[in-house]
Input
Amino acid sequence: MNPPAADPLSAGLLERLPLLARDALTSGLPEPWRWVSNSLLAILAIIVVFSSLFALLTLAERKVLARVQNRPGPNRAGLPLTRFRLGGLGQPLADGIKMLTKEDIVPRGADPVLHFLAPVVLLALSLLTFAVLPYGRLLVPVELEAGVLYFFAAGAATELALFMAGWASRNKYSLLAAMRALAQLISYELPLLLAVVPVVLLAGSLSTSGIVAAQAGWDLGFLPRWFVLTPWGFASFLIFLTAALAESNRSPFDLPEAESELIAGHLTEYSGFKYALFFMAEYLGMTALAGLGVTLFLGGWREPLPFLEFVPSYAWFGLKLLALLFVFIWIRATFPRLRIDQLTRLAWKFLVPLALLNLGTAALWALTAGWGPALQPLRWLGATALVAGPFVLLGRGLTAGLRPRTYRFA
Amino acid sequence: MLGTGLLHGLKVTARNLVGSFHDPARMVTTQYPEERTRLPENYRNFPFLLGDDPADPLGTLRCVACQICEKECPPQCIYIVMERDEKGKAQKRPKVFDIDLSVCMSCQICVEVCPFDAIKMDQEFEIATADRFTGLLRHKEDLARSNAYYHQLHPTEAAAVDAALAEQKARQAAAKAAKAPAPAAAPPAPPAVPPTPLPPAAPAP
Amino acid sequence: MNPAAPPSRAGASVRAVQDPFHGDLLEVSMGPHHPSTHGVFRMIATLDGERIVRLKPVFGYLHRNHEKLGESTSYLASMPYTDRLDYLNSMTNNWAYALAVEKLAGQAVPERAEHVRILLAELTRLLNHTCLAGFLLQDTGCSGTPLMYAFREREAILDLFEALSGSRMMCNFQRFGGCRVDPSPAWMEAVSALVGRYDRFLDEYEELITGNEILLARTQGVGVLPAALAINAGITGPMLRASGVNHDLRRVDGYGLYPRFPFRIPLGDHGDTYDRYMVRMLEMRESLGILRAVLRDLPGGPIIDPKAKLRGFRPKPGEAYGRIEGPKGEIGFYLVSDGGPNPYRYRVRPPSLINLTVLEDLCLGHTVADAVIILGSIDIVLGEVDR
Output
């Protein structure tokens, strides 16, 4: 097992490049100011990188959705005021300008403070969650011992902002829709957390860097020791993915925002830039959850094969993040939407029991960690059976009475 | 097992996503206006009036202002006024032939009922205008096109129409020759009149 | 908003919609401007919490005086207006009208024209059911993917119609005594090619969505239509067959040359939305079988009866009702002639409207999201509902 390269000086040049750039800017300052400006630069870097990622993600989503649907997607908005189309890369800019130039309407009876604060709070809390993700070997913005706990605290607080939006609009329809969205979010907090607990158990640490450190090394020389490649980890990852989709109000869990839904959702009374902020907060939340998924299950910034160490770690993190986001978009392109009662039933009657049983499986896995090579197949088979069995049984209970039918002909 | 249907669905969308890059059957968009689809020959949009002479279609319109198309048109978008001379005698030419394209529904009934093959369907559809009162009102000057244009648009149909017209002319000439009394001094009229030559084939656009 | 509203009038299934123990009922209007109501259609739903306790459909936003107009237009001139009734299926509307007029006037139709009519009617059935599959799945929230696949295939058929009749949707193709244009051999080749490809599209579509657990959960058990109610309410078409009633006018009436082309009729057992969707998918496969048989057996001959009159068409006084099994149900035209050039009375039996009368019964007890899907599975086109 390779020891993690904690010493900055021993890492390669590409790894150290962001830190060198930061030091070039702030090395002249005296000590407390230096720390402040380093932190501010980290915040600025996160905001810039992830806002650009959000912009490109909206475009990528539209293009991928379009390609799945046999059409090219936006391909005309390019450099403004020129003829260069750039395959539609200017589309996010055009959308941003459109959103900014729209009239901002606040309903007369609405609570102006809450109405204004809701998108701001949502965005701020979504951004807060980015502080603990390890983007690279040397790139953790804030090194917290309880990083995962902090992530979920900030993430759960965003639900408050959603309800603030529904309440402040003073519109009974958006209030109902906000309550329904809140029910969905609260239902899926539990599977989300329960899917993460086995990871914490096996990594022995709540800190995100510690979890990435626990996934170091390769089995048999080429299989990385990422948690997703273990039976319990795979199940946890799938539960985490499903819950993350529901937490970000993404298809197939986007009933609160559906167009075919009568009530236009908690965002009814928002227009213009505030709507854009909600949109941005949703995408940032999705990105943060994807980033956490990468950290917890896909080995964070670790390279998949030993000889690929020359590629900098933040590039690996970025690649894995983009792959996971692509999976989210792919799922959106394919599946219909679940109804609210089916959604909550899925959470409480399927995901929660599955996650609890998975916790037990992970505990058994931890207890049998010392088994020798002869007993490893037993360990793997046992764990797989303990994961697959409940999945099949609970799945049968969930889809009781639903099956494709055969028809008779006259 | 729960999830097999979902996985099949993901497989199909993945196949379409990958196929959209190399398989033309999975990228079916025509990038209008840079690319255009070829319209089929039978495509019809709005009517036009047919004139025989390519150099002066307006002066050689086949329309005799019989007003059959005006009566048969379902939304009544055609307005015809017959040309009359000073004494009021009908001149078998339209003085006014207006079609309001904003009313016309492109049903082609005027073409079907015209006994003189004087009105046919055009294929132009990029006629949007900002003037909502008279922008789509077409007069006979705007509607007149030559038979050569007709051949260009609908070659098969135009060839059939020309053949039918030629046959009709031949029959009329033969009937006239059969009925004509034998003149005293003039030589007898030849028994068969050669048919009028067909107009030249469609010139390449 | 009156909780003590009278129960629905469609008959057999009366459920308690007046309940003094429930509190405020919420009345929401899925207004005429709505992305999922398939046209300008309004549903006033009274909700108790999430469940619908009363649903009043309001239509008429697309009323264009079609029937009254028919009284002042000649028989031929009404033909393009029938295109615009169920604007997705113009060929079958044309045929139903032509059938009614031919019955009225005693007009015969040559064999080639009958074959071509069946060909076009089955192509229209493919068009309509593909369109329904796309829109129904779009309503369940599929972000457009099945819709785009469905429309990709529709384009091929619409291009065929454009090549034949000059217009993709407003075909104005059938005449009294036959068809307007004789299809060329090249066109027949194109139809054969399409029929050869269509099975693969249906297979891919089934793989994409029909086994999907989420779709099963959304559509099975939703909007159950009992067979007795369906018969009492006059439901026709795939909606009736999905409830298990074996009634298809192609077999019952045997109009045209349908008795020569055997086909199977899929029947559903539950009458829910899933059955209505699957019956249509199976009907598409049967249509492909009919198309193959017609393409094989297409005879030569005139495409329209040489004795048919185009202008000056004055049927003798009398009345006739001509009906066909359109893709949405029984579409019929009732004509009364008084000997003049225009009909004295012109009446359309719109299948969408009559199928829509049971909407409230289907939606009671379900949520609004289900109501959208149930409406989608009834398969209405507002041009036909409102005429």
About this structure: The interface with chain A takes residues 1-3, 6, 9-10, 12-14, 16-17, 20-21, 26-29, 31 of chain B (CB under 8 Å). The helical segments of chain B are 4-19, 68-72, 109-113, 140-143, 147-153, 155-179. Chain B is about 30% helix and 15% strand.
